[in-house]
Specification:
544 residues; alpha/beta; Alpha-D-Glucose-1,6-Bisphosphate, Chain A, domain 3; binds alpha-D-glucose-1-phosphate-6-vanadate; binds cobalt (II) ion
Length: 544
């Protein structure tokens, strides 16, 4: 039976950030908190009544309970069919694929991505649309507006929760609930894009590889793909069982949080290839023996070598990168005669370009890479793409990088994150630079002169929508730059991101340590923005 529950007062803090609504697990446990956001989403998302909805998550604490609430609310809102997965386990890229494959009106992905999970960690809800991608700001703004006005929500009471232990059909009122294996369809898609025979030959040969699933969602996908289908030895997939608290770890695939894997690859020659994905499986880190592949470079290498993969053998329509991502891909695109777009941070800005067929590949510096096969970034897809290139080129990762730089030049790049700083300190620092910007043009900075100082704004070339306030840029006369942004995914205080980039042409020194190559920029931005004194931090929390 459908019940109408009233809210004594609407919630005022349900504004989605860069990627969904992300809060502490504790906050999500506030009575009616999840329900409020789901009610608003079901009211705003077009086609809900009579439509199909996909629901699943990264397995973190709260995942199963949320699926049951969403199923009951979907039933109360007249959704015809709900597709969910065994164990409720569904990666973000796999969810994107299911939405597209089943003509769903959208999906609800339960994840706070790379943020830690568990009762003391974070929880999150991402709302995706019919194209399989994160809903655009017009929709997330409307959802937020709806939460501010909400008087109550509708939910089906009574009956039993869907049994997620095995695939099968059941119902809640008129809603048909379909539990499927969350891995099958995704794997079939990967088999259409890449040559599994060729990659299998590589992995069954002398090619020790380590994949770290970080006790997050990619474990079951990676075990099926690498060990069962491609024949890599048992144990190739590490930390492959999804856990509610990710084993206490921080499922963020970078050199800091994927420390064990980093040590394995960077500290010895025992492994030829290493990779890791994040909580919800949309991010990837790729490593060779003693070689870290910067995500901005990774997108450039995939662009330059795309036709080596069967799914991209006909070439690319165009490429895109988010603004803070380095221009390494731009150089490749120029050489190959491809259109190259620069979007704000967050995958939702790639959606229109992908839907319109203007781009095939896109990526972000934050370990996100993807293509038009779905509408999310895709961690395992990127790993398979790299393996495809390695299988075709029969060369170590380090040589692929060296050859890439000697052809296109190298964009030395680093991101310095200052996490969980006091909100006022972060905003004070940021707003001060923003106000200083007009006067900075022509000033000297790191021994160079500032050519442009602005706050990045983007006009979507497909629908004409304008998005402003996307990050403070200092563009130097020699093509180097520093960008400041405040994170839109954190849950504690504020996180300042400092993006540093400097280009060296093929004739220059291509084998420096990035932190050294960027040293002058690092010192200059600290001086200008007073980062150390204003944050009270000696050094960044995370350097990538
Ligand atoms: C971060 C990254 C951004 C990414 C977003 C979601 O956002 O910088 O590039 O799209 O996380 O990734 P922010 O606002 O904190 O910088 V995920 O893996 O959470 O879906
Ligand atoms: Co993620």
């Amino acid at each position: 039976s459908i019940r109408q529950i009233s809210l004594a007062q609407p919630f005022s803090d349900q504004k989605p950030g860069t990627s969904g609504l992300r809060k502490s697990s504790r906050q999500f446990q506030t009575p009616h908190y999840l329900e409020s956001f789901i009610e608003a989403s079901l009211q705003v998302l077009p086609g809900v009544a009579g439509g199909t909805l996909v629901v699943g998550g990264d397995g973190r604490y709260g995942n199963l309970a949320a699926i049951s609430v969403i199923a009951r609310m979907a039933a109360a809102h007249g959704v015809a069919r709900l597709i969910t997965t065994t164990g409720g386990i569904l990666s973000t890229p796999a969810a994107s694929h299911l939405i597209r494959q089943h003509g769903a009106v959208g999906g609800v992905i339960l994840s706070a991505s790379h943020n830690p999970g568990g009762p003391d960690g974070d929880f999150g809800v991402k709302i995706n649309g019919a194209n399989g991608g994160p809903t655009p700001e017009s929709i997330t703004d409307a959802i937020y507006a709806a939460t501010l006005e909400l008087g109550g929500y509708r939910i089906c009471a009574g009956g039993s929760d869907p049994d997620l232990s095995t695939p099968g059909l059941s119902s809640i009122g008129d809603l048909q609930v379909e539990v499927i294996d969350g891995v099958d369809d995704y794997v079939a898609l990967m088999q259409r894009l890449f040559d599994f025979d060729q990659i299998g030959d590589l992995l069954r040969g002398d090619f020790p590889m380590a994949f770290d699933a970080m006790h997050a969602v990619t474990g079951p996908y990676a075990s099926r793909i690498f060990e069962e289908l491609l024949g890599a030895p048992a144990g190739t997939v590490r930390n492959g069982i999804p856990l509610e608290d990710f084993g206490g770890g921080h499922p963020d695939p970078n050199l800091t949080y994927a420390h064990d894997l980093a040590e394995l690859l960077m500290g010895s020659d025992a492994y030829k290839f290493g990779a890791a994905c994040d909580g919800d499986g949309d991010r990837n880190m790729v490593l060779g023996a003693r070689c870290f592949v910067n995500p901005s470079d990774s997108l450039a290498v995939l662009t330059a070598n795309a036709t080596l993969a069967p799914g991209y053998a006909d070439g690319l329509a165009g490429v895109a990168r988010s603004m803070p991502t380095s221009a390494a891909t731009d150089v490749v695109a120029k050489e190959l005669g491809l259109a190259c777009f620069e979007t704000p941070t967050g995958w939702k800005f790639f959606g229109n370009l992908l839907d319109a067929g203007r781009i095939t590949l896109c990526g972000e510096e934050s370990f996100g890479t993807g293509s038009n096969h779905i509408r999310e970034k895709d961690g395992l897809w990127a790993v398979l793409f790299w393996l495809q290139i390695l299988a075709r080129k029969q060369a170590p990762v380090s040589r692929i990088m060296a050859e890439h730089w000697s052809r296109f030049g190298r964009h030395y790049y680093s991101r310095h994150d200052y996490e969980a700083i006091a909100s006022e300190a972060a905003h004070g620092l940021y707003n001060r630079i923003k106000e200083m910007q007009p006067a900075l043009v022509g000033q000297s900075f790191a021994g160079r002169s500032i050519a442009t100082a602005d706050d990045f704004a983007y006009t979507d070339p497909v629908d004409g929508s304008l998005t402003s306030g996307q990050g403070l840029r200092l563009l130097l006369e020699d093509g180097s730059r520093v960008v400041l942004r405040l994170s839109g995914t954190g849950t504690q205080g504020a996180t300042l991101r400092v993006y540093l980039e400097s280009y060296v042409p093929p004739s220059g020194n291509l084998s420096q340590d990035p932190q050294m190559a960027l040293g002058e920029l690092i010192t200059a931005i600290d001086g200008l923005a007073e980062i150390k004194t204003r944050t009270g931090m000696d050094r960044p929390t995370v350097i990538t």
